[in-house]
Amino acid sequence: ETGVTQTPRHLVMGMTNKKSLKCEQHLGHNAMYWYKQSAKKPLELMFVYNFKEQTENNSVPSRFSPECPNSSHLFLHLHTLQPEDSALYLCASESGAGSYNEQFFGPGTRLTVL
Amino acid sequence: KNEVEQSPQNLTAQEGEFITINCSYSVGISALHWLQQHPGGGIVSLFMLSSGKKKHGRLIATINIQEKHSSLHITASHPRDSAVYICAVRMSGNQFYFGTGTSLTVIP
Q1: B16-69, pLDDT tens digit by residue?
Q2: What's the pLDDT at A71?
Q3: CA distance A73 to A25
Q4: CB of A107 within 8 Å of any CB in chain B?
Q5: What's the confidence (pLDDT) of residue B1?
Q6: In chain B, what residues touch A90 (CB-CB under 8 Å)?
Q7: Contact call for A105 and B96, based on CB within 8 A
Q8: What confidence score (pLDDT) does residue A96 get?
Q9: Dist CA B102 CA A18 (whole Å)
Q10: Three-state secondary-structure class, residue A89
Q11: E strands of A4-108, at which residues?
Q12: Best residue in A49, A53, A55, A105 to probe B by mutation, most B CBs within 10 Å?
């Protein structure tokens, strides 16, 4: 138990659906991350919110959009996804803006796009 | 080519064996992380290193900044150590690169 929770744990959706993934932490951290983990590939950083400032990986398609309403909650909104978007989506939080902080990961949401 | 390379990709060991997993990287970094991922997906941070060596229980992590290389050692391995071990490097700011992971199976 890392203190970072994600819901839902599993999600199956069609290509025309709209869904959202949720991440929550009450560790007092100020930075939160979305990662994508596809089979046989390295973890891919998608988005970062650090003190409410968003950084994104430019290779992430616009069908993924993050939202960070406060420092404890992070959402990933999904719309018109493709089957290749099926993956494990991991959320992580970190205590601050420095380069020497440990990340705490959530259990992930296993997404399947039909 | 991935900025972070791990070896081996897969490793099977007998219980009690000493295990070494290697990580080489090609970019300048501010810190290196070793992560453990169990079946089901959850990831736990094991170590964060910027120099030298760290030890936690049966786990030891070392880093050589000049050679751009890190190793994760497990002493007296146990079946519960079976997991995927991921090396991640952090550049300045929020930029991370991850290795593809080393899948470890420890047989009783």
Answers
A1: 999 999 999 998 888 999 999 988 778 888 999 999 999 999 999 999 999 999
A2: 87
A3: 7
A4: yes
A5: 64
A6: 41, 43
A7: no
A8: 63
A9: 35
A10: strand
A11: 4-7, 10-13, 18-25, 31-37, 44-50, 53-56, 64-70, 73-79, 87-94, 103-105
A12: A105
The one-letter amino acid code at A59 reads S
DSSP for A15-29 reads: TT-EEEEEEEE-S--
> B68: Cβ–Cβ under 8 A, 6 or more apart, which residues?
B24, B25, B26
Place of tokens 């991640």: B88
- Could you tell me if A85 and A67 are in contact, meaning their C-beta atoms sit under 8 angstroms apart? no
Residue A6: closest CA among chain B residues belongs to which residue? Answer: B42
Q: Which residues of chain A have pLDDT under 70?
A: 96-100
Count of beta carbons in the 10 Å neighbourhood of residue B45: 19
A-B CB pairs within 8 A amount to 60
